[in-house]
Structure formats: structure tokens, C-alpha cells
Amino acid sequence: MKKKFYYLLMLVCCICLVACEKPVEPQPGPGPDPEPGPDTTAVVPKTEWEKADSAYTEHDYTIPSHTALKLAIHVCAANPTEENLEAMRQKITELQPKEMPYCMVATINGDPQTRMGFAWFTNDSIFDGEVQIVAMKDATEEDFNGGNVTTIKAEATRTKKALRYVGQCSYIYTKADLSAGTKYFYVSHKALAENLTPGTDYSWRVGYGDYWSPIAQFRTEDAAQGEYSFIVMSDSHIMNKEYVDYARRCALAAVKTVPDARFCCFPGDFVEDGTLANSEWEWERWFEESMEPIIKRMPIVPTDGNHDDSPNINYTYHFNTDRSFNELTTKPQFEGITYSFVYGDALFLVFSMQDFWRLDYSYVDWNSAYLTDYLGYWFRRETSKNPNTKYRISLAHFNLFSGSDHSTDEEPPLFRACMLPVFKDCEIDVALQGHDHTYEVIGPVNPDSLTPILSAISDRQQVAGGSEKNMTGYEGGTYRTDDGTFYFIGATCGRKRYSPHSRERMEREYTDDPDVLRDGKHHNVKNYFDLFTGMFGQPGNPCFTKITVKDDCLEFNSYTADDDRGNVSLLNTMRVVRTKDHSIPMLQ
Q1: CB–CB of 577/552 below 8 Å?
Q2: What value does the mean pLDDT take over residues 132-158?
Q3: Residue 210 pLDDT > 90, yes or no?
Q4: Average pLDDT along the chain
Q5: Distance, CA of 390 to CA of 581 (rounded, Å)
Q6: Helical H runs in 404-493?
Q7: Which residues have C-beta within 8 Å of that of residue 45, sequence separation ≥ 6?
Q8: Cis peptide before 444 (omega within 30 of 0)
Q9: Which residues have C-beta within 8 Å of that of residue 428, sequence separation ≥ 6?
Q10: Residues 6+ away with beta carbon under 8 Å from 195
């Protein structure tokens, strides 16, 4: 049986071998080479924008200029028109080497007759930097190569952590194809010019070696300063191109309308993204694009807004203002947000209320030890040191009084409880506020009764009221501040706008029940609408205000920026006067 199986197996194998055997193919003789087939290893040529993306790497250029190229490349990839390609080519020509400075700004820092602060950024690892100053207006690069240049070496500080670049708003990381987690380290440079000559026009630039910023200007306060003007604008809320463009429109209009302004006050909300998810790109655009026309012509007087708050302390890195307030026991969360200076006949008290929570505070009892004990003491100290200025002007982001969406926030009752006694003791004439994005003329307000001092108002014009453009039906006017403070909100220099509340709504939102008040939907100012004694409405365009310090008044001229060419419309004109001498507050 085994043998039969063996023979059968051998037979099957032979059959398989015969079946698998192939006939021998004849060998080809000499002849023409065969036609080549398709080359499956050929590389598809790169597009022009792909070549640009790989040729110009992030490491070699400043963050702002390389991001602008990334944005242009991404636009081309989505829509490769000749117009978009040409725009990308232009961005290539505008690339700046990594050593170049950016986000430069001059700030009032101490005595404006003899001092000026400067700050700017560079990419990580670029620690060299200095400011150069020439005592002339509109100096050229050749003037800086001459012999009459003052050079001041800057202090350079690397950011403690990598700053988040794209933030919560999706605009820049979707438009430039960046990761939502993009972060960069930066170097913050700061320098202080001292012993300047009063009443002198200066040109300045920052950088080192062969790497220099554009040239900017400022003028020191005159030794015997007479009449002068400054600009107030607020709440740019930079978050995307539209917001960048609106704020730039306002800055261009302000420079064209008030070319001799000595400085620009900006009480906060530079950017939209605060908190941990902040966006350095938004700060970058504020300096490099939106406010660039103003920064080139005058110093900035800044303080922080609630949208600027971040543990990454972008504000502190970007500005170089006086920090003597830090001598107090409890320091603010950001350096340089509370400071004072005298310019001509006015004492400016620039401050932030946003640290009210740093010591004991209560929404039940409406108190804050920080505001009362530290900020209140500082106000009294500064006004006591400067008893002879005719006008006392405060500048802050948060409101003590306002008539739009922030009027029912939970903080204002606490702020009023803590700060109105301070304003009363220090006899503050004008409180310049931001935060509410509406044009609001308030008071003068009696700090005890929270009522308007109608006998202190004259020359108002009656116009059509009851509309979003003007709820009160008043414009113009002269407001005397002998017995109360005049509060002013100049709308917004940007795109984010609120609507004014009506009398009926304000009355509906009033409560004297402290438990109801804390719900964030009510206020505790009885007859609130009566405090709005002048123009009160939404202008609908970016706004700025020119304030002129005169012998007999503070003159306010507010404008809307109507287009991108610097054209404006006059919105409102009014005067603030004081007829009594200030008293000197007791230090507490």
C-alpha cells in the first residue's frame, strides 16, 4: 500500500514539473533601443508660493514680517490670482532680518520736560539694543550718522515664558495657516532718556549696528508750557484685519487733524484676547500697523484694560512708564499701569482699578483694601505734591459711571464706593474713561448725592434726541467742576460698539436691594439717566477726541474718522472750566 502511494506521488510531481516548464525565448539580436515608458519617479514642480514657503524660513526673519509673508502665501494657496501673487512678492521684499527691532513706542515717563521712556521687541536671542536721539524734527538717516547723536543702551529682558501668538480669536492662525498653539519667546528692550532739553523737537530710532527702526518724533514739554493739545482714544480691541484697519483709520485721522498733539492717552483694551489665551499677534498689530501713525509722531500715555490682562504680562513688556507706584507694599499685577505726571497746567493721574481683588474685598460690603488703602493713598499723595495745577485729570479704563452695556456690571458699585470719596478729596476735575464704547458726557456729578450739578452747566444746545445717535438731545456745553467731577467716555477708536441705554431701561435696571444688585443685571444709581448731561450716543464710526489745555478752560473737540484718507467729521465741542482753587487733601 505504501509503495502504491509512493509511485502515485512521484507521478503527480512529474506531471507538475512538465506543466510548469516554459519554452526557451529566442535572444533578441542587434536593433533600435526600445521606446522609454513613463517616468513614475518624476517630481511635480513646486508652485511659486510653495517655493517661497520653503525658501524664506521663520528663523531668519522678524516674527511680524515672516507672519505677513505666511499670510500672503496662504492667500495664494487658496486663490492664486496674479493680484495675490504680486502681493506675496511684495511681502518677500518687506521681509526684515531677525536682528531688526519692532513694536517700538515712546511713553511719558516722569518729568515730560526732561525725560522720555522707550520700549521695543526683538526676536529671541537678540539682546543688543539702544535708542538714538537727535535734537531736530523730521531727522533723516544721514542726521543719525552725524556727530550730534545721543545714544542710550537699553536693558534687555527675555520674556519669562513663550508668549502665545494666536490666542482665542481664530483669524491669524486660520489665515496664515499657523498652529493654534504657536508661541514665541521675545526680548523686551527698554531705555530711558534723561536730561533732555525742554521745549525741543527730537527724532529717535532704536536698534543696533546696521539694524535700525524707522525714525519717530516727540517734543518735550516747554519750560513755561502754555496752551497745548493731546489726543484721547480707546478700546481698539485688535482681533482681526477689520479691527486693525478701523483703529488705523482713527490713528491716521488723529495725526492729520491734530499734527501738533503732544501725546496720545490710551486707557486700555488694546487687544481682544486677554487671559492665558492671549494673542501677541494682536499686540504686534497695535504697534506695527494700527497705531503706527501716532507712534511715529508722539508718545503714548497708556494704562491697561480688562482685555489686556494676562499672566504673560504682555502689557508690562511693551511699555516703559514710571513705576514709582510699585514702591507701595502691594504692587500691581502689571508694572507701569498707575503713574502720574504734570504737563503745563494739568496733573494727570493715570491708574488702573483692575487689581481691586489683590487684598481683602467684598461685593457684599462694597469695599476693596487695595483701592482704598493703596490707590486712594497714591491719589492723595500725588495731588498733595502738585497743589498748584489748575486741572486734575484722571485716566482709567474702567468706569465709575457709564450708560451702556457695562453700566450693570458687578464692579461699578464697588468702584464707586471706594473711589468717589477719593475723587471728592482730590477734587478731580475730569475723569477720562474707556470700556463702554459709547460717546458719553456725564455730570459734573455730586459725589455724595450722585446727582448732576445742573447749576454748573451752561451753553448746551438742544437738538433732536431719543435716538441711538443722541439719546439726551444735548450737545456742546460748558461744565464747571468746582464741586464735582466731569466724566467722559469718547466711544471707541475701533470696530466694537455698544448702544446707549434709554431712560426707561436705566430706570428698569435700578435697584436698592444689594442682593439683586450683585446679579450683574442691575445698578444702584437712582435717576441714572439724569447724569447724562451732554451728548450721549453711538457715533457709528471710530472716534478720537482732541483736548486743548487753555488758560480759561479744557476744550474738547471730538471727531469721527470717516475714511482711510484721514477725513473727519466734528462730532461735538464742549468746555470744562474751574473757577475755584484746589484744596490739598489730607494723606490717610
Answers
A1: yes
A2: 95
A3: yes
A4: 91
A5: 7
A6: 411-426
A7: none
A8: yes
A9: 349, 392, 393, 394, 485
A10: 114
